[in-house]
Design goal:
The structure is a homodimer.
Chain A: H1 14-20, H2 25-33, H3 39-46, H4 50-62, E1 66-73, E2 76-83, H5 85-88, H6 91-104, E3 113-117, E4 124-130, E5 142-146
Antiparallel strand pairs in A: 1-2
The structure holds a DNA duplex (30 and 30 nucleotides).
Chain lengths: ~150, ~150
DNA sequence: TCCCTTGCGTTCGTTTTTCGAACTCAGCTA
DNA sequence: TAGCTGAGTTCGAAAAACGAACGCAAGGGA
């Protein structure tokens, strides 16, 4: 079972994990959520090799996480990479990573950017909750059952 | 800037993203949250090569996400891999992946396991909320500012 | 005691990925 | 026509992953 076969497992956790678990993919998504949209800018800010960048962008296009959108600059038509709705919906994944990073990987130093709720200025955090009673859940509060 | 240098970037999103963005690491964590604890069981259920499994387990031990715990079986002392508090706190990351997978990568088929809140039987989902007003947030509701 | 089994890795030669520098190409611009 | 720029593509070298075989310590049984 090669790594790639997880992409077709009947598990709604395995497939996203296999997709985002490829090298560079999470870092690429971070950059996109921070506003980067062009090939050259990804390449410059992340210092990823151009061939791997091409590959990762293509995978995300194929998965419909990103879309290519034409735009004009200096009278020329070019394309930029933007999140689809499916892509934007990955926000909780990135925020969960950051919430964890804030708690467990921030020794003294501060974060390189800050996030605030536009409406009230509050902070941002990811959490897991019950769809019925809205209680916040940890792994211990959740029962796992194999599907029938 | 090699991939590994993201592990020391002053960004609380980059570092977790680089750590969990290595191949197999997210899938390994999924398996751990599902209850797998021993080398042989990881190897058998994921079909990962033994050398890479050794490496990934060691990285997670070093990062203090996992710990080795001795246990007895057949009168012999062995060790198993278990989550630390830091590791357990990754639960929202995995649940965010799953919530996304349920919405965007579950065509007709069902998930391979189900999750329920032990207390009330409700479903489980990840979300992002404001630490002040508790509103649920999307990327559009959040303002990013570079640190001073 | 000697041999077998088990769990947990380690080694090593082969195949994939990644790297990085150079190259290509299309569409302006001078 | 020549040059520039953004967006890739190509290709040889280096790193990572693969997988089959090997190592090893701790029992158990003969």
């Amino acid at each position: 079972m090669p790594y790639s076969s997880f992409a077709s497992m009947p598990c709604t956790l395995s497939r996203p994990a296999a997709l985002l678990g490829e090298r560079w993919t999470l870092l690429l998504l971070r950059q996109i959520f921070l506003g980067t949209r062009r090939f050259e800018d990804f390449q410059a800010t992340m210092d990823i090799s151009r061939s791997v960048l091409t590959d990762r962008l293509n995978v995300l296009l194929q998965e419909n996480v990103l879309k290519r959108v034409p735009y004009h600059e200096d009278g020329r038509t070019r394309h930029e990479y933007r999140l689809t709705e499916k892509g934007r919906d990955l926000y909780p994944v990135l925020m969960a990573l950051r919430t964890w990073g804030e708690r467990w990987m921030a020794p003294e130093e501060e974060e390189s950017f800050q996030l605030h709720h536009r409406d009230c200025g509050g902070g941002v955090r990811a959490k897991v909750e019950c769809t019925e009673c809205a209680a916040e859940l940890t792994a211990r509060d959740v029962q796992v059952t194999a599907r029938a």
